[in-house]
Design goal:
The chain is α/β, with parallel strands linked by helices and 453 residues long. The chain is built from 18 helices and 15 strands. The protein folds into 2 domains: 223 residues, P-loop containing nucleotide triphosphate hydrolases (Rossmann fold); 164 residues, P-loop containing nucleotide triphosphate hydrolases (Rossmann fold, 3-Layer(aba) Sandwich). Helices cover 38% and strands 15% of the residues. Bound molecules: adenosine monophosphate. Adenosine monophosphate binds next to helix 3.
Length: 453
C-alpha cells in the first residue's frame, strides 16, 4: 500500500489548542479536518518532547489517542528536515504487532499528512509481498510494518534502512508477548545508531524496561493514568453467568437497542464462529474476525462494522488488537480473557478518546479465581452481580454447554498459536533469524557499520 499526497499551501490554525504544542501548520489543518479540538493527555505530554527529538517511553492504553501522540510530532520533524536526497530510503520506521494496527496507523498518518506530501508504505503478512517490495524499492517517509513480514523482506535485501531517523515500537508489550523479540532485535541492529527511538506500551514490565535500555538513549518516561488501569471512560459491569446460559444472556442483552455497536470477545476461533451462527438464528447481524479469516475477510468485516451494516463484531483477542473503530457502544467479554492483561485491551475498544463506553463481562464460577487476580492487576474491586431481569432459573438450551465445549474442543488450543504471532510468521521468522538461517537484514552495502553480527 502506498499513499502519497500533494503539497498544498497550508492555512494557519494558530488558535487551536494543538498549535501551542509546536506542530506544523499543515498538520494542524489536517487535525482540524479530523474534528479534533483539543489534545488528549498523552498527546499534550509527548508531542513537545518528540518534536524536540527526545527518546520517549509512552505508557498509555490504546484508545487514549497514542497513535496521534507519536505520528503528529514525527510528521512535524520530518517536514522540518524534508529532503529529496534520501528518496529511496525509509526515514521513519514504525513497528506494530498486527496487520490491523499497521493499516490503522497508516490510515492515520495518511490523514494527518494530507496537506504535507509525506509518503507512507506498509508491510504486513497475509497479503502479496510484491506491492510491498515495490514500495520499499521506491522508499518512503514512513514505513509501518509488522516485525515478521519486515524481517522476511529485509532479509531478502529489500528496503534501505540506512537513513532511518526515527524508530517507533508501538504496543511493545504486545509485540514481546507475540514472540517478536528476535525479529525486532535483528531489525533494530540494521538501523543507524543515531536515531530517535520511541516506545509505546500499555504496561511497563521488566521486559519493556530491558528493551528501552537496549534501544533508547536516556528516554523520557511519560505515563498517562495508572499502569494497567482500564480507561476511565469505560463503565465496567460484570454479570454472573452459568456457562450454558452465555448465549441466552447475550441475546437478552441485545434486546436493548442501546447496544448499538457491540464488540464481543470469544476465547477461540471456533467459539467466535459459533456465537455468530447463533446470532444469525436470532436475526442479529454479526461477523467474526480471527486468525482463520483471510486478510480480505477481516477487512470486510471491520468495514461492515464501521459502516453500521452489522451490529455485532465477534473477535478473538489477537484479531481485535488495535481495532480502531470509533463509536463502539459496548464491549462484551463473552469469555473471560486467558491473559488477564487482555481485559484492559479489550475494554479499551470502547470509550475511546473522550467518549463513554460500557464493558460487560460474563463471569462463570470457573472465572472467579481469575477475577480476583484481575482486580489485583488493575488495582480496583470489580463488583460481580446478577443481570437484572434475566431469568437464571431457565433451562439451558438443549445444546452442549459452552464451557463443556471449550474444555474438550481440540481446536481450543489453536488460540495460543494465534497469540504467538503465527499469522505473520513472526515467531518463526524471528527464531530462524536468531539462529542465523536468514541472510542479514537490510540492503547489502547500505547497512551501517556495526550491523548484524
Ligand atoms: P488511539 O489511542 O491512537 O487508538 O486513538 C483512539 C481514537 O481517538 C482514534 O479514533 C483517534 O482518531 C481518536 N483521537 C486521537 N486524538 C484525538 C483527539 N485529540 N481528539 C479526539 N479524538 C482523537
Amino acid at each position: 500500500m502506498y499513499y502519497s499526497r500533494p503539497f498544498p499551501s497550508p492555512t494557519h490554525f494558530d488558535s487551536m489548542p494543538f498549535a501551542s504544542l509546536g506542530l506544523d501548520a499543515s498538520i494542524l489543518k489536517a487535525i482540524a479536518d479530523q474534528g479534533y479540538t483539543e489534545p488528549t493527555p498523552i498527546q499534550k505530554a509527548t508531542i513537545p518532547s518528540i518534536i524536540e527529538g527526545l527518546d520517549v517511553i509512552g505508557v498509555a492504553q490504546t484508545g487514549t489517542g497514542k497513535t496521534a501522540a507519536f505520528t503528529l510530532p514525527l510528521l512535524t520533524r520530518l517536514l522540518r528536515t524534508k529532503s529529496n536526497a534520501n528518496r529511496a530510503r525509509v526515514r521513519c520506521l514504525i513497528l506494530a504487532p498486527t496487520r490491523e494496527l499497521v493499516v490503522q496507523i497508516a490510515e492515520n498518518v495518511a490523514a494527518y499528512s494530507r496537506y504535507s506530501g509525506v509518503t507512507v508504505a506498509t508491510c504486513y503478512g497475509g497479503v502479496s509481498e510484491r506491492p510491498q517490495i515495490a514500495a520499499l524499492r521506491k522508499g518512503c517517509d514512513f514505513l509501518i510494518a509488522t516485525p515478521g513480514r519486515l524481517l522476511d523482506l529485509g532479509s531478502q535485501g529489500h528496503g534501505d534502512f540506512s537513513a532511518v531517523e526515527c524508530l517507533v515500537l508501538d504496543e511493545a508489550d504486545r509485540m514481546l508477548d507475540m514472540g517478536f523479540l528476535p525479529a525486532i532485535n535483528t531489525i533494530v541492529r540494521a538501523l543507524p545508531k543515531e536515531r530517535q527511538t520511541l516506545m509505546f506500551s500499555a504496561t511497563l514490565s521488566r521486559e519493556i524496561e530491558t528493551l528501552t535500555k537496549q534501544f533508547q538513549k536516556s528516554p523520557k518516561l511519560i505515563e498517562v493514568g495508572r499502569r494497567s488501569n482500564p480507561a476511565e471512560t469505560v463503565t465496567q459491569l460484570l454479570y454472573e453467568c452459568p456457562g450454558a446460559l452465555k448465549q441466552v444472556m447475550l441475546h437478552h442483552l441485545l434486546k436493548d437497542p442501546a447496544l448499538a455497536m457491540v464488540l464481543v470477545f470469544a476465547r477461540t476461533k471456533h467459539g467466535a464462529d459459533r456465537i455468530c451462527r447463533k446470532l444469525a438464528g436470532e436475526k442479529i447481524t454479526s461477523a467474526a474476525i480471527h486468525a482463520n479469516r483471510s486478510q480480505a475477510q477481516r477487512q470486510r468485516a471491520l468495514q461492515a462494522f464501521k459502516n453500521g451494516e452489522i451490529r455485532v463484531l465477534v473477535a478473538t483477542d489477537i484479531a481485535s488488537r488495535g481495532i480502531d473503530v470509533d463509536g463502539i457502544t459496548h464491549v462484551i467479554n463473552f469469555d473471560f480473557p486467558d491473559q488477564l492483561e487482555d481485559y484492559v485491551h479489550r475494554i479499551g475498544r470502547t470509550g475511546r478518546a473522550l467518549a463513554k463506553g460500557t464493558a460487560i463481562t460474563f463471569i462463570t464460577r470457573e472465572n472467579l479465581g481469575d477475577l480476583r487476580r484481575l482486580e489485583k492487576i488493575i488495582g480496583k474491586h470489580l463488583h460481580c452481580g446478577k443481570l437484572p431481569g434475566f431469568d437464571y432459573s431457565q433451562q439451558a438450551p438443549a445444546r452442549v454447554p459452552e464451557d463443556f465445549v471449550r474444555e474438550r474442543d481440540p481446536r481450543a488450543g489453536a488460540h495460543s498459536s494465534e497469540r504467538q504471532g503465527r499469522p505473520q510468521g513472526g515467531r518463526h521468522g524471528g527464531y530462524r533469524a536468531a539462529q542465523g538461517k536468514y541472510r542479514p537484514f537490510g540492503r547489502p552495502g547500505t547497512r551501517r557499520q556495526g550491523g548484524p553480527k
